Amino acid sequence: MTYMNSAQAIMFLKNNQPFTKDTEEKFEVIKKYNDVRVHFLNHPDPQCIPLFLNSFGEGSGFGVYQLIEDVLMKYSIEQVVPHLITALHSEHIGVRYWCAHIAASFPTPSLITPLSNLLSDPDPDIRRAAVTALSQIEDDRIIGLFKGVLEKETDPDVLEHIQEALTEPKLTSLTPK
Known about the structure:
Elements: H1 6-14, H2 27-42, H3 48-53, H4 68-72, H5 77-87, H6 93-103, H7 112-118, H8 124-135, H9 141-150, H10 156-166, H11 169-172
């Protein structure tokens, strides 16, 4: 790993909004992305929050995308959620997918609307990630939302995921209004 400062790390993220689909040619760039991740783990700077949230391409980033949440967990819900709400509306499938996963670690009612919008996303993996994130939010509206989606959902894996979420103690203890 070569030394970098926060300005260089921020510039790298700005230049990769979002990454393209995973390819072998991108491996060296993803290695630098991981160096940027490590830099911000050790030198937190809230400027990196929206840049990381909008950096996800299609694929796993060779396993690095899963680790970005560790950086984001260094910040408060108040710092992350406004940027997360924006990213959940992204036109980029990778950004929506990974941000839906990250949303599960920031369970707040302000994420209900953007996550519920993802329940009709064309990609079933995004719908499943949205179900997981929504099931972490302790709000009685979630049960009605899931029941409404059950009637329309056609993907068997998403249906099963919703049914499992409806049996989680966090949701079964709530009574819908």
